[in-house]
Amino acid sequence: MIIITRPNVSDAEIDHIRERIESVGMRTHLSRGEHRTIIGCIGDESLLQEVPLRSLPGVESVTPILKPYKLASREFAVDRTIVRVGARDGAATFGGQAITVIAGPCSVESHGMLIETAHAVRAAGATMLRGGAFKPRTSPYAFQGLGAEALRLLADVRAETGLPVVTEVMDTRQVDLVAEHADMLQVGARNMQNFALLAELGRVRRPILLKRGLSATIKELLMAAEYIMANGNHDIVLCERGIRTYETATRNTLDIAAIPVLKRETHLPVIVDPSHAGGDAGLVAPLAFAAIAAGADGLIVEVHPDPENALSDGDQSLAPPAFAAMMQHLEAFAAATGRSIGVEAPTAWAVA
Amino acid sequence: MTDSAQNTEALAELTRCRAEIERIDNEIIELLAKRLALGKRTGELKRLAGLPILDPTREAAVIRRVTGLARDAGLPSEPVREVFWQIVGMSRRAQDEGREGRE
Fold first, then answer.
1. Which residue, A64, A95, A118, sits at the end of a domain?
2. Which of A39, A53, A58, A88 sits at 20 to 30 Å (Cα–Cα) from A25?
3. Cβ-count burial of A97 within 10 angstroms (0-12 exposed, 13-18 middle, 19+ buried)?
4. In sequence order, what are the beta bridge partners of A352?
5. A22 inside 8 A of chain B by CB
6. Which residues contact residue A287 at a Cβ distance below 8 angstroms, ignoring those fewer than 6 apart?
7. Which of B56, B61, B64 lies at the smallest CB-CB distance from A24?
8. Which pLDDT band, with edges at 50, 70 and 90, does B96 fall under?
């Protein structure tokens, strides 16, 4: 249930409306815009039958939300959410005018390769660095990542380059450690419905990059986001990374339609991972172009200084020159949708 | 004043501020302990009076009151509400524990 208030509603009226809702044991969420305010009700809606919501002072309309996700739903927020990553000036933003490109190796292999990649992707226009420390691999015999050592390397390279860092957290036991080193925590596709992990991430004061599960529906992805939000963390960026279909020519099928559908269903930013979707370096650029054309707020791309000798996912990693070439072409697609690549202009910050 | 003298002064002031912050944190913890103790006592009284522990109407009134106080003090009211929902939740759990100990 959402309550839309009258344009000139006072603080006291909002307080009163919220008190009435909270008096029956529900919770409220406030979203204030320039022209209107939305009060979202969270909890068992049957409790509200006794409350004469429509006749409370300041209430303009009351609308039930029939979808199972509430906090994540488009109706719950007046404006689209802008997620900021990194504390310093020039931090990356998702969901604003700027398109943010995250790039870096599948897994962190050494300081040398990480710093080389970071400088290369930054020069090409990427504003965030990715790098796996803990790797969920299909085979227990495959390289599992450098773990805590990789987290330290990521933090070092962030200090050297100024690029905020995102890395995956696989387990509730790693949450504090990863949050200490990274600017953004990634939930991998295989963990999208690890509800214990999602609940734990709700208590973290770091933005979350939530990847869609290999066989998850859009609704299930939004319910996973709802899980994190219900536990207190509202800074979530969703990521479409391809789903499993009967097609075998590509590793996964990039669900392009998921981008506009998510934009309609939620106020959260949406980015695309063209590397995992295609599983083939040759597909990365065309999928990235399609994603931006379809309205994605950003990309996460695997770049390795020497893809041939990468310890993981070499087939789908771009070498720095190929990444730079892709970024050059990407600008035209961004411009076609009225956006630009890189850091948000200072004026836009002031408005948001 | 030279840059280094300014630096030294800023660092000294920073140390003083941090000491003051720690003193305030001590007070917050003491006040939380007092508040929880009172919460437990109200739990006992509710049982004696035959009232349920969970009282959403009272909780909503507490939250509304502190929202107003926060606003009057020039604080951002949404984060303050979150903090007080945590405190109210702690208090409710403390009241519940009291009951389990008795039964």
1. A64
2. A58
3. middle
4. none
5. yes
6. A254, A272, A274, A277, A278
7. B56
8. confident
Question: Do A14 and A123 belong to one domain?
Answer: no
CATH classification at residue A38: 3.30.70.1140
Of B61, B82, B85, the CB nearest to A19: B61
The answer to whether residue A351 scores a pLDDT higher than 50 is no
Q: How many domains does chain A have?
A: 2
Q: Please name the residue of chain A whose CA is at the shortest distance from the CA of residue B54.
A: A25
For residues A60 and A131, membership in a common domain is answered with no
The residue segments making up the domain with residue A46 are 2-64
- Which of helix, strand or coil describes residue A28? strand
The domain locations on chain B are 3-102
pTM: 0.83
The verdict on A156 and A247 lying in the same domain is: yes
Give tens-digit pLDDT for A56-90. Answer: 999 999 998 888 899 999 998 989 999 999 875 55
Same domain, A94 and A33: no
Q: State whether A201 and A271 are in the same domain.
A: yes
Cα–Cα distance between A28 and A34 in angstroms, integer? 20
Residue (of A133, A101, A116, A108) closest to A319 by Cα position:
A116
Q: Using CA coordinates, name the residue in chain A closest to B58.
A: A23
DSSP assignment string, A29-64: EEEE-SS-EEEEEES-GGGGGGS-GGGSTTEEEEE-
The residue of chain A nearest to residue B86, with distances taken between CA atoms, is: A232
A30: closest chain B residue by CA: B78
* ipTM for the complex shown: 0.79
- Read off the amino acid at residue A121: V
Q: What is the mean pLDDT of chain A?
A: 91
pLDDT in tens, A231-286: 999 999 999 999 999 999 999 999 999 999 999 999 999 999 999 999 999 999 99
Element of type H or E holding B63 = helix B56-72
Contact state of A22 with B63 under an 8 Å Cβ cutoff: yes
Give the CATH superfamily of B3-102. Chorismate mutase (1.20.59.10)
- CA A62 – CA A108 distance, rounded (Å): 50
Is A129 found in the same domain as A46? no
Is there a single domain that holds both residue A283 and residue A221?
yes
Nearest Cβ partner for B60 among A11, A23, A232: A23
Which pLDDT does position B81 carry in this prediction?
95
| A312 and A193 within one domain | yes
Q: What are the beta bridge partners of residue A334?
A: none
Q: How far is B56 from chain A (nearest CA, A)?
A: 5
